[in-house]
Design brief:
Number of domains: 2
Oligomer: single chain
CATH class of the largest domain: Alpha Beta
Largest sheet: 4 strands, antiparallel
Mean pLDDT: 92
Order of helices and strands: EHEEEEEHEEEHHEHEHEEEEEEEHEEHEH
Low-confidence stretches: none
CATH topology of the largest domain: Adenine-n6-DNA-methyltransferase TaqI, Chain A, domain 2
Structural class: alpha+beta
Distance between the termini: 11 Å
Number of helices: 9
Strand content: 15-25%
Strand order of the largest sheet: 2-9-6-7
Number of strands: 21
CATH superfamily of the largest domain: DNA methylase specificity domains
């Protein structure tokens, strides 16, 4: 730590306003213009306010703090309401407030969180967190530098995320267009006319064999190994239950497929399996076959009427499938580049935070 820096616990550089928090149940909230803050930021807008000053809100939700799934700390200003899931700290100036906000984002908080069933950052633990405190001009320099650099990082991340979305959307649009526009030599038939559909025998997790020679495919891909297989050839599998209902997988040769997946098998070799996979990924609206809100599911009855378009020539199907596969690989390559860029930007941000609060920036 640099000369002139001090270490102080959070309660010595801020005033805790938690005693003024008031929760409002959703059923009795009156809608309005004032932000209503909880553990993850603004959760609603209400008709009244209890705070009218600049503060720093810190999540009380230990699970969020450990996973860092949302911001740990977020500033609040103007008129607003806060419930019991966010701590409220007031600082002498906004520079110190921002300095502390950035510092809390840079450190692990595991040792300050208590409770196994419901992890929580309580007020006593929050107050005990040690904060490096440089003189105010140094705080201003660090905050100004980090904010400037982070603004550039945020722009770069937004561009990378947009490019990632565009790459995926472009391929999805192309695939949908190629598979839904009728071409010469193409036919339109229902899945029931062209495919056999069934759910195989299910085995439980207790039946799995840890080092079994054959993969077991469940609703979302491989779930374990087994000492038998019930399908010698690869099959197209559609998840038929749960939140991922409608997602598609191709099984490996010599696999056991459970009843949590619907096998969709082309009849009479009239459809190339890989081409059929791309039909499911972009040539039909699978949501039309999904029923049930609490427990979504797909049945053979609902899947059978869906119409698909395909070339009569299996050779043409195979050729198109190869083109789609090539484009898929290119899209995945682009996605990988953008994902690496996003990871590098996040690593840069963490490195800058570490340097800043160890006095090396």
């Amino acid at each position: 730590m640099k000369n002139g820096w001090q270490t102080k616990t959070l309660d010595l550089i801020s005033t805790n306003l938690d005693s003024r928090r008031v929760p409002i149940t959703k059923s009795v909230r009156a809608s309005g213009e004032y932000p209503y803050y909880g553990a993850s930021g603004i959760v609603d807008y209400v008709a009244d306010y209890i705070f009218d000053e600049d503060t720093l809100l810190i999540s009380e939700d230990g699970a969020n703090l450990l996973a860092r799934s949302t911001s740990i700390a977020f500033p609040a200003s103007g008129k607003y309401w806060v419930n019991n899931h966010a701590h409220i700290l007031r600082f002498e100036n906004t520079t110190t407030q921002r300095f502390v906000e950035l510092y809390l984002e840079s450190i692990p908080l595991d040792e300050y969180i208590t409770g196994a069933a419901q992890p929580k950052l309580n007020q006593k633990a929050l107050n005990s967190i040690p904060i490096p405190v440089p003189p105010l001009p140094e705080q201003q320099r660090i905050v100004g530098l980090l904010d400037e650099v982070f603004a550039g990082i945020a722009t770069a991340k937004a561009n990378a995320e947009k490019n990632l979305q565009n790459a995926r959307a472009l391929f999805a649009s192309y695939l949908q267009s190629a598979l839904t526009e009728r071409g010469d030599g193409w036919v339109e038939k229902s899945l029931g006319e062209t495919c056999e559909m069934y759910q195989p025998q299910t085995i439980g997790t207790k039946d799995l064999v840890p080092n079994g020679p054959y993969p077991v495919f469940g609703a979302n891909g491989i779930i374990g190994r087994y000492d038998k297989f019930n399908h010698e050839e690869p099959q197209l599998l559609v998840t038929c239950r749960g939140a991922t209902c409608g997602s598609v997988n191709i099984s490996e040769p010599n696999s056991w497929i459970t009843g949590n997946a619907m096998v969709v098998r082309p009849l009479d070799h009239s459809l190339d399996l890989k081409f059929l996979e791309f039909i499911f990924r972009g040539g039909i609206d699978i949501s039309k076959a999904i029923t049930g809100a609490a427990q979504p599911q797909i049945t053979r009855t609902n899947l059978s009427p869906l119409l698909i378009r395909f070339p009569k020539s299996v050779a043409e199907q195979t050729k198109l499938a190869e083109q789609f596969e090539s484009l898929t690989e290119e899209t995945q390559c682009l996605a990988s580049i953008y994902e690496r860029k996003l990871a590098a930007l996040e690593a840069l941000k963490k490195s800058l935070l570490h340097q800043a609060f160890s006095g090396k920036l």
